[in-house]
Design a protein that fits this description.
about 0% strand; mainly alpha
């Protein structure tokens, strides 16, 4: 949030807090002075320092990749690893002199030079360049540095390297999912929670979803799960994440809100995909029992979490029905697609519109701007999709664009007014 916007919001909130007796006028003045004061450390120098560390790493890697045969091997090793230890020593000195941000930049530079050293050793001793072992060592070193120092930039680097390592390993045998990824992923999640770093938790969630997208075909073929059942299972998986985040919002609200937001977005994206006309040969040999059994286990876990959320008063019955409708729609999709594929686009388009409207109601009840905005975006996007898919083939080109323009302008105006009204109600409820 920008500083001026934050101060305006804070001043309006403090006036309400004073009126209700929660804050004294003297304390309110001190709060405003503290919020209006300049930060002790500007962000721009910190950003430049981090970018400088990244550039140092790229420079070292480029230096290694240049194939500098005229320099002796020993000199190469001393140059790279000497620079790495110099960066680590600089990090210690900067931390002692109370320059934590620049110390983190030095840590990142040291890790980048460590990776360059791995590349150098591989080049000198002619190790296979596509061997993911070097990237694995680099990722482990980054996660260890993130946990022991601690270092948030090192954690970000470790998560990125974990993805790169997994992709490299998967490319060597793309018929089998790279399951060892989840070991480093779990370590990354633990470190992100230990450091209480929300952006790191975002990166952990993104890494998990990226792995599943990359390995989807390998999972389907190696485990004998039809793509339709795999899509249903992933939908149930994000719904489980949604409810798990809801149950953990009191202990870790920042992390829970991030997980819930990702789960909502991905659940609706996957449900939108269901309305696309499926392949007539969605099943090769009838109903695949492996996929059905896996989805049944996920559905049982989802039902247990839903009952727990309802019993704790975290989820109302009508909103539990909305989440259950997504799950039932995902589970029913393989059967409907196999028996009557022509019905799928119409049925799931209608369900998507109903669920988008429900999400607006869900966000209003839970005072979630993300849910309200996502519901309106999903509803508008679906209407736009239906317009182009249906009327585009029935109307003359000029009439099509004219009707479309009027339709979009009027719809956008009405939806924006409704969205602003609901957001205002949500904000007012949160302040109360």
């Amino acid at each position: 949030m920008w500083q001026r916007a934050y101060l305006r919001k804070l001043k309006s909130d403090i006036d309400l807090w004073i009126e209700r007796g929660w804050v004294t006028p003297a304390n309110a003045e001190l709060i405003l002075q503290s919020a209006d004061s300049a930060p002790a450390q500007r962000r721009m120098p910190v950003i430049l320092a981090i970018l400088g560390a990244v550039l140092i790493g790229f420079a070292a890697m480029s230096f290694v990749a240049a194939n500098w045969n005229e320099i002796p091997k020993l000199v190469k090793l001393v140059a790279i690893f000497g620079a790495m230890w110099a960066a680590w020593i600089a990090a210690i000195m900067l931390e002692k002199r109370n320059h934590p941000a620049f110390a983190q930049a030095a840590v990142l530079a040291g890790l980048a030079l460590f990776g360059a050293g791995i590349m150098l050793i591989a080049q000198i001793y002619h190790i296979v360049t596509d061997d993911p072992g070097g990237v694995l060592a680099w990722a482990i070193a980054s996660l260890a540095a993130a946990l022991l120092l601690p270092s948030r930039p090192a954690l970000a680097l470790g998560i990125l390297l974990t993805i790169v390592w997994s992709v490299f390993a998967w490319q060597l045998d793309d018929s089998t999912p790279h399951w060892p990824f989840w070991i480093l992923w779990a370590v990354s999640a633990f470190v992100a929670l230990r450091l209480a770093w929300a952006p790191g938790f975002h990166l952990v969630l993104i890494a998990g979803f990226v792995w599943q997208a990359v390995n989807a075909e390998a999972i389907s073929s190696s485990l004998g799960i039809e793509p339709a059942w795999l899509l249903a299972f992933v939908t149930l998986e994000v719904l489980i994440l949604w409810l798990a985040a809801m149950l953990g919002e009191r202990r870790a609200p920042r992390f829970a809100s991030a997980a819930e937001a990702y789960a909502m977005v991905i659940a609706f994206v996957l449900f939108w995909v269901l309305q696309l006309a499926p392949d007539a040969n969605v099943f090769q040999d009838g109903v695949a029992t492996g996929g059905l059994a896996l989805c049944a286990l996920a559905a049982a876990a989802l039902a247990a979490l839903m009952m727990l959320a309802i019993s704790r008063g975290l989820l109302e019955g009508r909103h539990a029905a909305g989440i259950a409708a997504i799950a039932i729609g995902a589970l029913a999709y393989p059967f409907i697609a196999a028996s009557n594929a022509a019905l799928v686009p119409w049925l799931y388009a209608a369900l998507f519109l109903v669920l988008a409207a429900w999400l607006v109601s869900y966000g209003t009840a839970r005072e979630s701007r993300i849910a309200v905005n996502l519901g309106f975006v999903a509803f508008g996007a679906e209407l736009l999709w239906l317009y182009f898919e249906t009327l585009g083939n029935l109307l003359d080109t000029a009439l099509f664009f004219a009707v479309g323009g009027i339709f979009l302008i009027a719809g956008a105006f009405i939806m924006e007014r409704m969205r602003r009204r609901l957001i205002a109600q949500t904000d007012a409820g949160g302040a109360a």
